[in-house]
Write a structure and sequence with these properties.
Radius of gyration of chain B: 21 Å
Helix content of chain B: over 70%
Number of strands of chain A: 0
Structural class of chain B: mainly alpha
Largest interface: A-B, 24 and 27 residues
Number of helices of chain A: 8
Order of helices and strands of chain A: HHHHHHHH
Structural class of chain A: mainly alpha
Number of domains of chain B: 1
Oligomer: heterodimer
Number of helices of chain B: 3
């Protein structure tokens, strides 16, 4: 990374923390957050790109050969681990390590899986899950998937499925749009912050230049006084 | 004591420069007084900004200019003190 963590603005620092799965508290101090980011990065450094790619592929994420490790890390921390079925024991331990879950060599895989799944409920966005459930409920109602409801004609069933699919698509689109807008807003905020920092640096340079200029004026005034004093003393020597 | 044009010019110059300095300094001080005592919100911000700017000022950046000023002031003092050893009017 080009800029060190200390040079980043608060917004950028929070963004960096969120990219690696940390949730900065509202009143968390910069030093503490930087320490947490460093600790998390150390853990991430121990995991190879291939291991991230393998876990992401398990989660159904698309991983291309040209995708950098940083991107895979961001994708990893956006993943949902509420179900860990099918993850190899090795990957389970990697996931647990990357989420600061404590375990040792003797901890059974099932226990690690249960801890990951339990913690994942906290990692995921509660609101999103709730809205997902609402959409699912509406889709079930429309499609008539309930146990006591049966549709008579296959055309009607087809229509209901189509309607529910449309609603599902709409909901998915809305969620991805919300994510996209939130991401863009963060980017804009970070850009504004960088601009403000730049302005501040320029103001610093301008202030120093201005003070130096004023001091130079004072210096020239005193130099003129010296010149007059010298002329005066010479004049006195000449006319005495 | 007879009239001397040089000494007259010297006194006139000193007097006019002193009056000019007095007026300019008083005007600046009035400005700063307004900055530091305004009760509106924007003056509050300006006040804080001024304090921040003052605190962030690094004397090392203008050290050379300050040293030159101190040197010139000592030269002026020496010259004024030297005048008493040269006999003559003024």
């Amino acid at each position: 990374m080009a800029a060190s963590l200390e040079d980043l603005s608060d917004v950028e620092l929070r963004g960096t923390a969120e990219d690696i799965g940390l949730e900065p508290a509202a009143k968390e101090k910069r030093k503490e957050l930087i320490a947490r980011i460093r600790a998390r990065r150390e853990i991430i450094d121990e995991v190879s790109r291939e291991e991230f790619a393998r876990i992401l592929r398990w989660g159904g994420e698309e991983v291309k050969d040209f995708h950098a490790k940083g991107l895979l890390v961001r994708k990893f921390y956006r993943m949902n681990f509420r179900k860990t079925l099918g993850l190899s024991p090795e990957d389970l331990r990697i996931v647990a390590r990357l989420h600061d879950i404590e375990f040792d060599d003797e901890t059974p895989d099932e226990e690690i899986a249960t801890t990951i799944e339990a913690s994942a409920k906290r990692w995921t966005d509660v609101l999103k899950r709730a809205s997902g459930r609402v959409v699912g409920f509406i889709a079930r109602q429309v499609a008539g998937d309930g146990p006591d409801e049966t549709l008579e004609a296959p055309e009607e069933e087809e229509k209901a499925v189509s309607r529910s699919l449309k609603k599902g698509f709409k909901a998915a689109l809305r969620f991805s749009m919300d994510d996209y807008i939130a991401e863009k807003l963060d980017e804009i905020e970070a850009r504004i912050d960088r601009k403000l920092d730049e302005l501040d640096r320029k103001m610093d340079a301008w202030r120093t230049r201005e003070v130096r200029h004023r001091l130079r004026i004072i210096k020239y005034t005193i130099a003129a006084t010296v010149a007059v004093a010298v002329i005066s003393i010479l004049y006195k020597l000449v006319v005495r | 004591m007879e009239f001397d044009l040089f000494f007259f010019w010297r006194r006139l110059l000193g007097l006019s420069v002193a009056i000019y300095c007095l007026i300019t300094t008083a005007d600046r001080l009035r400005g700063y007084w307004r900055l530091l005592h305004g009760e509106e919100r924007h003056w509050g911000y300006a006040r804080r900004y001024l304090v921040i700017q003052l605190l962030r000022m690094k004397p090392r950046e203008v050290a050379w200019e300050l040293a030159q000023i101190l040197f010139l002031l000592s030269v002026v003092a020496a010259l004024i003190w030297g005048h008493r050893f040269v006999p003559g009017g003024g």
